[in-house]
Amino acid sequence: MPKMELNAVTLALRLTHSVLEEIEHLVIVEQVWIFTDSEIVLNWIKTKQQKEKGQMVSNRLKEIGEIVNHMKSRNHEVYFAYVRSQDNHADADDTLLDGAERAYAGSLLIRHHQQTWIAQEILRKFHNLYVKAGEDGLLRCFGRMGRSELTESAKFPIFILQKTTLAKWIINEYHQKGRPGVNHTVALVRQQFWIPQLRSQVIKQVRSCIICQKLNNFPYRYPEQSSLPKERLIQTRPFEHVGLDYFGPLPIATASGQGKCYGSIITCMVAKLIHLELVSDLSTIAFIQMLRRFFARRGVPATITSDNSPTFLLGEKILKECVEAAKRDPVVVRELSNREI
Questions:
Q1: CA-to-CA distance for 102 and 52, rounded, in angstroms?
Q2: Domain count, the chain
């Protein structure tokens, strides 16, 4: 814990140094006071022996000394002082309001808003809302929902003028609880407040919410779709133009225990028919054997489309070499000639 307090003092000194550099030509600052509620940190800062305190503490104390010396060279005297935890306004646990205090502070803020911004001329524009003071002195909308089973705050919502800072704060308060959409945020606000033109203000605030943009917006627009390849548009027999890919591995039972194999899916690019084959592994030999079984069942396709897997590329190279060798074989040439192929 003292090391975290030391980090806080270092950060405060850094910020103070940066601010003084920006305003030194505008304001003369002779003294700078840094308060902390950790007596251990104050002792570290005032003690010159740093070797026994650890490397991190030594680095922070060294940085504090350098910043203090630089500020002194600019005629800024730096003092470190102790403040009790109960008097430390930077301690969040000591400055939080309880429920009653928050409600009282909220009523004061709303009353100040209504007294400052809502005049009689403005109320005449909203005569259909039946705005008048309630038992707590706040202007509320007394509509026709008095006999409903809603809560009192929903039956008689507090009137807040639209497009004001308080209206923006209220919308933001409800929107930050879970980041709901426009309709949900409007419903939450109207459980306690009535803000004219609420939906348009909520839409504007939701659209400007950075977190909602990260969650809901696409980073880039989808590109325009290109034309389909020719193989998918011509009328052909099934499996004349196919696409090929592997999937797996798939667990199988072998004589020695449990093994694995892979599946091959071959899709007709025109009719969308599929042909499934099993391969023992990802080797090129297994790939060629799978193609032989497919050719025997479906016929030899005109084109095969696949990704650039090394197995597929090597298999393509082997098939091309076999075709070129067959073209040079006199037996094959004679047979093709006799069959007029």
A1: 47
A2: 3
